[in-house]
Amino acid sequence: MIRIAHIITDTDTGGAEIMLAKLVRGMDPARYRSDILSLLPVDAVGQDLRKDGFSVETAGMRPGLPTPAAFGRIVRWLRRRRPGVVQTWMYHSDLLGGLAGRYFARMPVVWNIRQSNLDPAVNSASTMHSAGACRRLSRKLPAAIICGSEAARRSHAGFGYHAGRMLVIPNGFDTDQFRPDPEAPSRLRGELNIPQDALIIGLAARLDPQKDHFNFIRAARILTEKRKGAAKKASGGSACRPVYFVLCGEDIEWENGRIREWIGEGPDGPFGSRFRLLGRRHDLSDLYSGFDLSGTSSLGEGFPNVVGEAMACGVPCVVTDVGDSAQIVGDTGKVVPPSDPQALAAAWDVLLKMEVVERRELGLQARSRIEELYGMRAVADRYGELYSRVFQEYYGAKAECAE
């Protein structure tokens, strides 16, 4: 058995955190044992992993510059756990966990890169400094660098990371957890006070410049006005069905001044009444299954979990052409340029004009694509093969992991 120490910046509900949780649950427990250290206090994903029996601890850091005391706690945790391989997730953990694991605890380190956009305009100064430091260390420190998408590999190689240590392992999806539910559309409309004949476009994303909610809201206004005009000319059919927009994620609430300003009115206005802002939700499978369409409106993504999850639930997706989004969707949805609300609204409109049976069939094709290309079991096996190789190369073929 090889013990894997996972070090991640936090365990909030985000793409990297969710992928970590899926990975440790999906790995063969007879061959791999996983321990998790969150640099920041343990949050929702970490608490759920604790309930499942995993060891999840915190280094007690606070947002901002790390302290020597916090770094010392990382080193002591590693020396106490004695893992065979240290897996770090995202820039801050790649840097701090990598230094602690490789040079202080004397263990092989694997980095994990999750995003593809290193534009300083949409990344914090702290993120850019950490990425820059990792770039300088990438030739010697990590035994391997996992990129969550081909787009992430290309952008980081261009940024100066050592390309020879990089490999791509995409996100995997639990298609038993994320699956179609025929009762979900009616149930979701009842919960959110949406007419049963209405169409729903959903977006699951925390409030972040990379996710470009402003683009989504502009597209929603364009689509609403277009369909309002079409409904006046039509005698029935899909053009007459109202469209509602269901958004969830951290800070996605009416109390958030930025979102309210972008929508231009509150929930009682003629346009605002078409929105349901749900904040953070943990029942994403139920939400996706109630949508008619989902996807992204992002400026930058690596390999968006929300797209694969929605597709696994049988929902066609419209995505912006960033990261590996187009590769995930294939021919089961639509791909549009980023920052182009006209194109986003037009793609939504094309899919919403489909007959229900036709759109449902497209959703089933989307699910089949996820099952075939991105099943969690195959992805977990690829991680395991890499850990075994790194372990053998570092310790030698006869080494045994200390328990």
Features:
403 residues; alpha/beta; Rossmann fold; 2 domains; three-stranded parallel β-sheet; elongated
- Give a count of the beta strands, DSSP E runs of length 2 or more: 13
Instruction: Output the CATH topology of the largest domain.
Output: Rossmann fold
Full CATH superfamily name of the largest domain: Glycogen Phosphorylase B
Order of helices and strands: EHEHEHEHEHEHEHEHEHEHEHEHEHHH
DSSP helical segment count = 15
Brief characterization of the structure:
This protein is α/β, with parallel strands linked by helices and 403 residues long. The protein has 15 helices and 13 strands. The chain is elongated.
Protein model, in words:
The chain is an alpha/beta fold and 403 residues long. The protein folds into 2 domains: 2-172 and 376-395, Glycogen Phosphorylase B (Rossmann fold, 3-Layer(aba) Sandwich), CATH 3.40.50; 184-373, Rossmann fold (3-Layer(aba) Sandwich). Helix content is 44%, strand content 15%. The chain is built from 15 helices and 13 strands. The chain has helices at residues 15-26, 44-51, 68-81, 91-104, 125-137, 150-159, 184-191, 213-233, 257-263, 284-290, 305-312, 325-329, 341-352, 356-373, 376-395; strands spanning 2-8, 32-38, 55-58, 85-89, 109-113, 144-147, 166-168, 199-204, 243-248, 275-277, 294-295, 317-320, 334-336. The strands form 3 sheets. Strands 3-2-1-4-5-6-7 form a 7-stranded parallel beta sheet, with helices on both faces. Strands 8-9-10 form a 3-stranded parallel beta sheet, covered by helices on one side. The chain has a 3-stranded parallel beta sheet with strand order 11-12-13, with helices on both faces. α11 (305-312) crosses α14. The chain is elongated. The mean pLDDT is 93.
